[in-house]
Write a structure and sequence with these properties.
Elements: H1 29-38, E1 63-64, E2 71-72, E3 79-84, H2 85-91, H3 96-100, E4 106-109, E5 117-120, E6 137-141, E7 144-145, E8 160-167, H4 171-174, E9 181-187, E10 196-206, E11 211-224, E12 228-239, E13 244-245, E14 249-251, E15 257-259, E16 270-283, E17 289-302, E18 306-307, E19 315-316, E20 323-338, E21 343-352, E22 355-360, H5 362-367, E23 403-408, E24 410-420, E25 427-448, H6 457-466, E26 479-501, E27 506-528, E28 536-556, E29 559-570, E30 573-574, H7 580-584, E31 590-591, E32 594-607, E33 612-630, H8 633-636, E34 641-659, E35 665-680, E36 700-713, E37 716-727, E38 730-731, E39 746-747, E40 750-761, E41 766-773, E42 781-785, E43 792-795, E44 800-810
Amino acid sequence: MRSPKRHPAVTYFPKAATGFTRGSGSKVGLAVAAVLAGFAVPRAPSHAAEADNSTSGGLAEVVVTARKREENLQDVPLSVDVFTKKDMQNLGISGFEDYAEKVPSISFISEGPGTQFFVMRGVSDGSNPNYSNTSATGFFIDDMSLSWQGVQPDLHLYDIERIEVLNGPQGTTFGASSMAGAIRYVTNKPDVNAFSAGADFDGGQIQGGQQNWTEEGFINLPLIDGILGLRISAFSDSHGGFINDQLTTRTWVNGAVSTNAEWARNDYNREHVEGGRLALKGVLNEQWSATFTYGFQRQLTLGAWDEDPNLAPRTVERFGPESHHFEANMAEFHVDGDVGIGDLVYASTYWKLPTRQENEYSEYIQNYGGAYGVPGSNEGVTCLNDPVYGTAPYTGCNVPLQYYEYHTNPERWSNELRLISKPGGKFHWLGGLYWEKTRDKNSGSTYYMPGLRTNSPAFEYYNYYSGTPLGSTSLPAKEWYAYTTRTDYLQTTEFADLSYDLTDKFNVEAGVVHFHSNFRYYSPFGQFAYAATSPTLDVGSSNKWDSKVGANYKITDKVMVYADFAQGFRDGGSNSGFPQGCYNRGVPQSYVPDTLNNYEVGWKTTSLNGRLVWNGAFYDMNWKQLQTIIYDVDICAPSSYYVNVGNARIYGVESNIDYKISDNWSFQAATSYTDSHIISSPYADFQGNIGERLPYVPYLSWSWNVRYEHPLNKDLRGYAQFDISHKGDMWNDFHIEGSNGFPRILQPSYSIMNIRMGLNPEGGHWLAEFYIRNLADKNAIIFSNTGNFDLRETTNEPRVYGLRLNYRFGKETNSE
């Protein structure tokens, strides 16, 4: 019931010659996992990353709401990564990729800003920014769920209290689509008692490119002291270009000649993001409070963030428009209070996330084999005659340029009511109800072909086989393919979690969730210009129960071990509106929910007078009825479709340390080893994938950072910091024979290094910092993208030299 981007193709296309390299099986996997578990190296912040101001000199307690109640992180029997406010400042985190690089359990791909797609713990179904299934990872801002159609919004991070990364299935706490885990942004709330404000500036020079500029600010006002508070933040973030669109001339298969002068330029790619947040908090009495929050963001990008491997680094040759426009309107009303037997929370949210993209797609028409399998033969649709569908050589040909626009207009309402037991006692419980309605009134895509001739022999050939009058078109002039959809989706969830302290040291826990959905999918049209309009309507529903059980034991007050079983899931749906030939060639009428069963043991330890935290976990996950989306021109041109392709197994280990070595030195590190493979499949196209590693999943990832701070005098401190993060090699896709003519590609590993040095007074009211991002100027391959019938390698930003300045007024400081 989602509306993926659909790439046009034509039936009667014989299979392209493709090949792939089988990923090597990990025979040493268990040995590596054991070593990693016992040796806690590279890991990103933070399980307790903020320096304590107490005389002990230890790490400060980190409080999280990973189980929808406030708890000390070291008491939560889950694998959770946390970036506190101090972590985000120290590491310069302002966007998704800034922290995703540093969390080993996260791997990601993208086509550039606004298109990031990420997976956790190797739970990857092959979705990508070209066409995506429902996300396997939950994405939340406070109590607002933003996961939709696989691609989470690319939000600028400012005035954020912390980021929580919950590894492993969270279905009984956060519902459907939190199958592999969940990421939560927790925003700063208004302080009703004290004034504070801040201003931040960041400017950087991209080596070989343009400049970056960021201005940010916030203000917190206690409108009625102790009763009513207002917090407002705003930002403007511009990133300059570093990709060159090289001027070139192309001779097309049909003989037409064109130049890309309209689009060619240096520093082709630009991004600008602006927005802000307003929050109003009222303290009704000692037991009750209410908060209303509204956030807005607008993102506009032009150009491309990839390179052509056949050209100079960070260079492309594009013959059409490329842009991405995204807006986010987000509102949340939150009430919490004491109702005697427990604490009641009500959260009502609304968001609207319209997007629009333009993308150059000329290689499809240049390389696609058409009805007779001859590359470029479809260029005949721009000619008065051609040798494939007509009776003479190419004559009277227009330039066969093609590009597409893609747009979505989703909006979501949700309401959650939960009741939580009060702190203390032996019995702890949480129960709640959740209702969510998502609607996309107008999602679709149009593929434009300015040189299209409906009176060409090639176009009339397709008219004939589609049963439409010769020369007739069902779309407006110059449109080759288009579709539009409306989706209505409603889900309700009941959930509960219970835990009991059998002794002062031993605790057991159990949770359950019941999920129900109803969906309606309507497409008034979706066809090539030569085919007749064919509206479709599909309705359906789904039910699912999931559970979790666990136990944890405190060996000492500072050492806890835990074991649990947890399930996560995604909803099912149907493939409606396809031509009968698609169903005849294997497209299923429907697909069922998939389920991830996770078996995990872990540990959490604090030692050396609170200066050292060492945590970790082993996990073994069985993925049943793995659900994915497939684009295969041999089975169902032009649409991608959903299918349960079989079962997968994922096992691995995570380990991390936070170490305050002395009053001056601190160290944080993390690593993960993940082995994820398809183990069985009844689906013919996936037989060759059995035993293969899942796409976008490195075996090994790690990160670490070291920081030195030293007083320069009684009022001023200086610091220096180095951090490095590593993502191992990973496959760029499932191998689907015939899908686009490219083999499966193994993306190489990469490491990114950054250094920072600066000044910060003892009071923490201002900061001045010089930094170098991507110190080694690594040209990393983020995504080997073959979805446009060419190879586009998304790359990262080159080395950046920058200066960061900020100032804090009132209560809040840079030392927090």
